[in-house]
Write a structure and sequence with these properties.
alpha/beta; Rossmann fold; 2 domains; eight-stranded mixed sheet; six-stranded parallel sheet; 14 helices; 21 strands
């Protein structure tokens, strides 16, 4: 007979149907929210199991999580080797979610320290390539300190996904239930790109005026990074050609760093000539112009009160992709500002014709809540038949998932 606590499974959706998620709870005061995290996952179809640290038990009793999930809670490792039971064999979890996660536990995981049920669980999960999602919660001063940020960076490079905390009242508070749910759904992606080769261009390029001044744009590379992580999660062999960016890229991806548009143009052509890519996604915001001449020394503003630059257009990377690789499925990004629906469609169709792209993704960079440097985006997809699909405003990792859903469907056709 099912546990009465599990009668809510699937009542709000089936996105997580059949998924086994281990919710690990550490000693942040936000541990009191763990039952709500478990319940929202269950309402969307998941079967949830729990691990708790000693410090978490000082904040919330294990009975609360046993009630919430309908399953026994692991508070100590025994001869049943619970950390292995949930990571190997028929009972293995589909995901490990640590919510909330303290800076202490982040540091232990980043340095391979296994001295709690949770860190041992994660160690085994990393070895088995089980997706790991971490939702930190602590005082803001602790979250922003350089050693914690470095530990987070190391874990991201190892494939761990973080759900950013909400910063308010000098706290880095646990993310909202909806944000955690979206991240879980997004990262339990299908393996529909196994065997596929994907090339992504990302970030800005820079064109030097002199050794310290340059022409560039505010592109952060966040959209390209999100797509790269999602493609890797789906099993693709991913190559990323990127300009100067500070956002992480998947450890499993092949990374090619460039600076100028000319360098990105040449490396993209070279990669396309050497490798048969199934999918190319051009998210890079390459500089459209470069100075006709570049000074080899710093231009002294005390001497030159005015400075006139003669600019010339840089090569259009996306225009050459289909010329070199006509069989690849090409998705190009198009940044626009404030176009009407009719004008957007006309512009997108023109760009599709000129690039021979299969799909164009248009975003409005004039909006402050999406686009450059934002963690959110909203895209209008237009295909060769002038059919449109809007991917409504969402975190870029969710947009990346939705975009690759569309690409995967078209690659199968």
């Amino acid at each position: 007979m099912p546990n009465p606590s599990q009668e809510i499974i699937g009542t709000d959706g089936n996105e997580l149907s059949g998924k086994r998620i281990v919710l690990a709870v550490t000693g942040s005061i936000s541990a009191y929210r763990a039952p709500d995290v478990a319940r929202i996952l269950m309402r969307h179809g998941a079967q949830v199991f729990s691990f708790m640290s000693d410090n978490a038990e000082q904040i919330i009793h294990s009975n609360a999580l046993e009630w919430a999930t309908g399953n026994p809670v692991v508070t100590k490792l025994t001869g049943k080797i619970e950390h292995v039971t949930f990571t190997v064999g028929a009972s293995k979890a589909d995901m490990i979610l640590i919510a909330p996660c303290t800076g202490n536990t982040i540091g232990k995981i980043a340095h391979g320290i296994d001295d709690t049920p949770i860190t041992s669980l994660v160690s085994s999960a990393l070895g088995e390539r089980i997706p790991i999602l971490i939702a930190p919660a602590m005082h803001e001063s602790m979250y922003d300190q350089p050693l914690v940020l470095e530990n987070i960076r190391r874990l991201i490079e190892a494939g761990v996904v973080f759900v950013d905390p909400i910063k308010e009242e000098e706290k880095a508070k646990l993310a909202s239930l909806e944000h955690i749910l979206c991240a879980v759904i997004s990262n339990l992606s299908p393996n529909d790109l196994v065997g596929k080769k994907v090339l992504i261009t990302a970030g800005p390029t820079i064109e030097p005026i002199d050794p310290i001044r340059r022409i560039t744009n505010p592109s952060s590379g966040k959209m390209g990074s999100a797509i790269a992580f999602e493609a890797v999660n789906r099993g693709a062999a991913v190559t990323v050609i990127h300009g100067p960016i500070s956002v992480p890229l998947p450890k499993q991806s092949r990374k090619i760093s460039v600076r100028t548009t000319e360098e990105m143009f040449e490396r993209t052509k070279q990669e396309l000539e050497l490798t048969k890519f199934d999918l190319v996604i051009a998210t890079a915001a390459a500089a459209d112009y470069k100075p006709e001449t570049t000074s080899s020394h710093k231009i002294d503003s005390r001497i030159h009160q005015t400075l006139t630059l003669e600019l010339r257009a840089t090569p259009k990377i996306i225009d050459s992709i289909k010329e070199v690789a006509p069989d690849t499925f090409l998705i190009v990004f198009r940044a626009q500002i404030g176009l009407t629906e009719e004008a957007l469609l006309a512009d997108a169709n023109d760009r599709l014709q000129r690039t021979s792209a299969d799909l164009i993704a248009v975003n409005d960079i004039g909006r402050e809540d999406i686009g450059f440097n934002s963690d959110y985006n909203e895209l209008t997809l237009v295909d060769r038949d002038r059919k449109t699909l809007t991917l409504a405003r969402a975190p870029k990792r969710i947009i990346a998932k939705q975009l690759l859903n569309e690409a995967s469907k078209r690659l199968k056709n």
